[in-house]
Amino acid sequence: MSEYKSDLLFGARTGNGRVLVVDDEPYVRTIVRLLLEKAGYDVLEATNGEAAIEALNAGENRLVMDVVICDIRMPKINGIQAIEYFQREYPHVPVIVLTAYPETQMAVSFMRSGVTDYLVKPVDAQKLMGAVERAMEQRQMAWA
User: Fold this and answer.
1) Which range has the worst mean pLDDT, 11-25, 36-50, 98-112?
2) What pTM did the predictor assign?
3) I need a labelling partner for 24 at 20 to 30 A (CA). Which of 38, 54, 68, 95 fits?
């Protein structure tokens, strides 16, 4: 459990929603977490796709996320594989791609497959927050 950290495993849901941040760069996870926590979100971090999938499926009750922010290039299970898993297993959870290696064809492919947003590092805080807010709106509409 050292690969990810969360206060979500214990206690009731609080704040504006739960966001899973999947990135192998610790400083990126920290910056994104601090921005989101300041805005009232609960944040779960994972160092790669494998750790994210383990975190979501740990224990008897699967964790419920409202939004997933995922890098592409990571060790073990990469972002492409992780996003495919999230979309298959959690189809109502919006996914935001956050990558340092933008590729037009990949961005188009992700957007066609239902990814909510495709952001490029270093991302502007307002762009990130706007993407998360749009994803939360999409999530709420999916359950309405």
Assistant:
1) 11-25
2) 0.86
3) 38
